[in-house]
Amino acid sequence: MRLRIVTHVEHPELRGKLPDLWPEFMHHDEVVSSFWPQLYEVYPDFQLWVLDGRRLVGYACTLPVVWDGVPQPNGVDWAVTEGPGGMPTTLCAIVAGLVPQYRGHGISAVVLGRMTKLAAAHGLDSMIAPVRPLWKERYPLTPIERYVDWRREDELLYDPWLRTHERLGAELLAAAPSSMTVTGTREQWEEWTSLQFPEDGEYVVPGALAPVRFEGGTGTYVEPNVWMRHPIEEPQPF
Predict the structure, then answer these.
(1) Are 126 and 119 in contact (CB under 8 A)?
(2) Structural domain span for residue 69
(3) Are residues 39 and 59 in contact, defined by beta-carbon separation less than 8 angstroms?
(4) What are the tens digits of pLDDT across the range 69-92?
(5) Based on the structure, what is the number of domains in the chain?
(6) What is the reported pLDDT for 238?
(7) Cα gap 216→197, rounded to integer Å
(8) 180: phi > 0 → left, psi -120 to 50 → alpha, else beta; which?
(9) Measured between alpha carbons, how far is 36 from 14 in angstroms, rounded to an integer?
């Protein structure tokens, strides 16, 4: 494996070359979707591509934000609406993903380390992240506020993605119970999920971290995430 992490500034041609890594419904948060092009157009030096030799195997998106130290409940939606206003203080990691065959090999930790170095290089005080817990989809009925308290016998966090952050020194700040919101008609949800929703009520949907609630023919999914904060090491002078 010849791992390299480059910025979008260095390799803009890589955008659009990765296969889709997320459930289809995750692309339909209107707040995030409307802002997404700005990540590459306005903040290209904060977007990362992960390469194995010449093969594109993953990506990470970050955003410099103004943060007052209070973890907002609307996580990702907050980051792309209120976060960018003013002189940035903090780097917010929005998303990171790897193609399936590259998962479980420690690459995620390398990518997180690269993001914290990016924050340091831009003079930002820390890196925060509304983290999407990897195994929360296995427990969609459990409130995120309880899930974040789950720990293994060795006292490390139960969730493997949260645990990766923790092992790198990140502090768990708080749940972000309404990090993203996806709303669609019954027909749209059936197209996104290949399921049927015959009546109003709550449904467990593959890939969703909480149930999708239908009311009056409209389905709403509110995604819970978890705020974590990574300290930044000051660059050492030569």
Answers:
(1) yes
(2) 3-231
(3) no
(4) 999 999 999 999 999 988 999 999
(5) 1
(6) 44
(7) 12
(8) beta
(9) 16
- Helix residue ranges per DSSP H, 70-159: 75-81, 107-121, 144-147
Give the C-alpha separation, 157 to 164, whole Å: 9
**238 in any annotated domain:** no
Task: Let me know if residue 159 belongs to a domain.
Answer: yes
For residue 179, give the CATH number of its domain: 3.40.630.30
For tokens 């005080």, name the residue: 125
Question: Around Cβ 101, how many Cβ atoms within 10 Å?
Answer: 9
Residue with tokens 């409209």: 218
Q: How far is the C-alpha of 228 from the C-alpha of 175, rounded, in Å?
A: 9
Give CA–CA dist 191/186, Å, rounded.
9
